[in-house]
């Protein structure tokens, strides 16, 4: 049956919807316990310099190993964590764990590079964010210049003034900032030059059909040119083919990340692998 809700909008109560609501509740309850039950883990995906063909960074990506449901993608539980506020403890766990691993790898003699951690909108707005990050850097001993935080345009744009203040405080600590999924949100180009950022990451949706020409190729070229003219590093994510790689390199994109180079990898054994981490192919 349908229940009228305003003009032209109907809410349908179907068994599927019911089931989904129930699922979400169950999922939320188990997500609450995921940290203490040690079900979260991080994978790390390398970023490579396209000109020098060497690794320049690692992005930490969270995974949830659910005992019954198996591996749950962050696309499924991060939005839920964001809605329920669970992103605060989860985000803190991610930061601490990424910094701890990275400190260990650098100590083992891994080539100096940054570790990038995703910050969701709610985390970026968290009142004690600066203190929390400072405490984690102290505790793990990771020098701040080795940490990069990825924030999205939408986290910044709903209150530009306070976002700039937060970004400045982080930058003053020595932490680097990158704008994630650039081009997919609405950021104002006039704001961009006020942001104390180091890097733009071109959204995967533009890279996907790059070599077909058309709009996405034009947008990608524009983002590369914009980043370069502002003195920012530019990273393309989601590179899957050599054609995409050649295209990006030719247009001056600095760095790349994607399945062509490597999938996100578990922490165990990563440092050993990074020793001779040169893409197997020439480009
Ligand atoms: P993102 O930050 O845009 O991360 C990149 C996503 O693209 C990752 O998915 C990665 O595995 C995937 N990817 C990388 N290269 C390729 C490629 O060549 N082809 C394709 N098809 N995909 C590629 P993942 O790990 O499933 O993460 C999805 C999203 O979940 C992330 O998107 C990010 O928004 C969020 N996320 C992941 N970990 C965290 C976290 O620790 N905190 C927060 N707040 N969000 C996270
Ligand atoms: Ca990211
Ligand atoms: Ca991204
Ligand atoms: Ca994304």
Automatic annotation (TrEMBL):
Keywords: Phosphoprotein. Residues 24-278 form the EAL domain. GO terms for biological process: cellular response to nitric oxide; phosphorelay signal transduction system. This is PAS domain S-box-containing protein/diguanylate cyclase (GGDEF)-like protein. GO terms for molecular function: cyclic-guanylate-specific phosphodiesterase activity. The lineage of its organism: Bacteria, Pseudomonadati, Thermodesulfobacteriota, Desulfuromonadia, Desulfuromonadales. It comes from the Bacteria. The keyword Phosphoprotein applies.
């Amino acid at each position: 049956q349908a229940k009228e809700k305003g003009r032209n909008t109907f809410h349908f109560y179907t068994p599927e919807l019911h089931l989904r609501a129930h699922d979400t509740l169950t999922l939320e309850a188990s997500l609450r316990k995921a940290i203490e039950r040690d079900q979260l883990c991080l994978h790390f995906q390398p970023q490579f310099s396209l000109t020098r063909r060497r690794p320049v960074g690692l992005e930490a990506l969270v995974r949830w190993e659910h005992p019954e449901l198996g591996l749950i993608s962050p696309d499924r539980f991060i939005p839920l964590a964001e809605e329920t506020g669970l992103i605060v403890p989860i985000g803190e766990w991610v930061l601490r764990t990424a910094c701890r691993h990275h400190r260990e790898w650098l100590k083992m003699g891994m080539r100096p590079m940054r570790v990038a951690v995703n910050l969701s909108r709610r985390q970026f707005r968290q009142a004690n964010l600066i203190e929390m990050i400072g405490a984690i850097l102290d505790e793990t001993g990771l020098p701040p210049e080795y940490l990069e935080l990825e924030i999205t345009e939408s986290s910044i744009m709903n209150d530009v003034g306070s976002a700039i203040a937060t970004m400045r405080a982080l930058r003053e600590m020595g932490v680097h900032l990158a704008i994630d999924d650039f081009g997919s949100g609405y950021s104002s180009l006039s704001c961009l030059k006020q942001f104390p950022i180091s890097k733009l990451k071109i959204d995967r949706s533009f890279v996907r059909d790059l070599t077909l020409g058309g709009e996405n190729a034009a947008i990608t070229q524009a983002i590369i040119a914009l980043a370069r003219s502002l003195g920012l590093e530019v990273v393309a994510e989601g590179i899957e083919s050599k054609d995409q790689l050649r295209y990006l390199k030719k247009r001056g994109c600095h760095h790349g990340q994607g399945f062509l180079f490597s999938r996100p990898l578990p922490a165990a054994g990563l440092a050993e692998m990074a020793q001779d981490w040169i893409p197997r192919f020439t480009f």
